[in-house]
Amino acid sequence: MRQAIGIGFSRETDSLRATELALQQAVKSSGPPVFTFLFCTDQYDAGEVFKAFKNTIPRSKMLGATVPGIIIGNNIFREGVGALTIFSPGIEVATHLQEGIGRNSFESGQKAALEIKKQGVDAGTVFLLPDGLAANISGLLRGFYDLSEDSYSYAGGGAGDNLKFYKAYQFTEDGFAADALAVALIKGLEFRVESGHGWNSIGESMMATRAEGKRLYELDGIPAFRKYSEILGGINKQDFSYYGMKHPLGIPSRKGETLIRDPLSVNEDDSIVMVSEIPSNTMVMLMRGETPSLISTAEEIARRASTGKSASFALLFDCVSRYLLMDSYFIQELEAVRGQLCPETPLFGILSFGEVINRTGSPLFDNKSLVLAVGGA
User: Where are the domains of the chain?
Assistant: First the structure.
C-alpha cells in the first residue's frame, strides 16, 4: 500500500501566505494528506495559520502548535511555519483539542482520553501537545492515562513561545486554543519511540520538603535557593539563570531513571520557580550535563529508535533548554541523530517546552530531554 510523506517550510512574514506555502510544498511530495503535523513560531498569527490550513487541505486531520523552533534535517529555525503531511490509506487517526486544561488538569486529561476513545481508534501511538506554559502537566498526563487503552504508546512535547512565557497555541483540524491539550492517536503507522536526556546527578539526594505547583520553597527544610547555592559552593541570585540552566533538579524513579525538572527563576524569599511541578516530599538530586554527554545520549536514542532501514520519517521533540545550553553545538546533536538514521529518512521536529516520554508504559512529563519517534517502514 503506497505511503508518501511531504515536508514543507516557509519563512514568509505573512502568516496566511507562509502557511499556504509550507503546506503546498509538503503536499507536492505526499499528495492529499490523511494527516498533517503543523508547527509555527510565535511570530505568526495562530488564527491565520489555522485559516490557511483549512483553505489548503480541509480534509486532512491535523495536530500542531506554536513552538520556539522548527527542526528540519540538521537545521533549526527560530522563525517560520513547518508542515509534515502523510498520505497513507491504511492509517486511522483520532484527534481532540481539550481546552481549559489549567482549571483542572487531571479531569481535563480524562476528558481528552474519553473523546479520543469515542472515535473508535483502539490502538496506536498517541501524540500529545500540551500547553507548555500550563500548570500541572504531569497531572494532565495522569488523567489521560487513567482512561486510556493499555495498547497506546506515547510521544510529544509542550507548546511554547520564543521564551516570552506569555502564550502558546495548540491546533487540531477542529480549531486552536491556548491553555489546551492537542491530541492525535495514529493507528496503522508503526512508530519506534525512544527518549532520554544525558544528565547525571551530583551530590546527595535531598527532600523537597515544601513545594506548591511550580514553586519550590524548601529543600531538606532549608529555603530552596539557599540549599541549591550551598551545594554549588555558594552562588549569587544574579547568576541563577546561568547555573539553573546547567544544573537542573532530577527526580529519581524506582527503575533507576531520572525525570528532569528545570529551574526558571529565584524569588526574594529564596523559593525557586520551576518550569514543571515538583510534588512536596519528593526526593530530588542536583544534576549536571556536559555537552558531550548530551550529544552522545541523543545519538544512542536515535540508534535505539532506528529500524536499521529507511523509515517514512523521524519526528523529534527536543527541549528548547538543550538548544540554549549547547548553543552552536546543538547542530552536533541533530547531526548525531541524523547519523543513526538511514540517509533517506527525513527528520522533522520542534524545540519543545518539556517532553512527553513513555519510559514506564504511561506518559510522563520531562524537561531538558529529547523524544524521537521513527515512523512507518
Answer: 4-196+294-375, 200-288
